[in-house]
Recover the amino acids of this structure.
């Protein structure tokens, strides 16, 4: 039996399969910088990003394909950085067909499993960070954060507190 008990970062008593928008951050295992090509340059704007590595391209494609596997889910925005990724995941519950309801945890577990199987090994930390997006202003702030994060990911105080 492990000497520690992992604390859940999910909001107690919240139904993560209900309609809503969720800001998701997933870090690579040991925060390895494996998702961008390591060519030494640092971006100065959104158009100046280094190319994704082979693993980064797989991760990016997997994010884009989430709605293909979950028709009631959209990815409103995402960004793949050297050692983590961000996405805004939106679940739309079809109350006429509740059998298609899926939770954030299930989506992320399947996403990570697909990437690991495709690449041939595990690349993500066990958990992930989520934030329930509660209103339009918060959504706009998170979108701006995702857009700006590639330029400051190395000194991002939010990331160092995660996972």
């Amino acid at each position: 039996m492990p000497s520690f008990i992992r604390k859940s970062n999910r909001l107690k008593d919240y139904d993560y399969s209900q309609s809503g928008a969720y800001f998701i951050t997933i870090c690579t295992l040991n925060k390895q910088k494996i998702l961008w090509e390591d060519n030494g340059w640092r971006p100065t704007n959104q158009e100046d990003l280094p190319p994704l590595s082979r693993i980064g391209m797989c991760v990016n494609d997997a994010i884009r394909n989430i709605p293909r596997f979950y028709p009631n889910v959209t990815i409103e925005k995402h960004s793949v950085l050297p050692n983590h990724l961000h996405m805004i995941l939106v679940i739309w519950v079809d109350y006429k067909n509740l059998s298609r309801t899926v939770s954030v945890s299930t989506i992320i577990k399947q996403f990570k499993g697909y990437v690991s199987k495709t690449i041939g090994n595990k690349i993500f930390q066990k958990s992930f960070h989520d934030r329930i997006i509660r209103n339009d202003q918060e959504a706009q702030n998170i979108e701006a954060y995702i857009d700006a994060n590639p330029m400051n990911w190395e000194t991002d105080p939010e990331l160092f507190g995660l996972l």
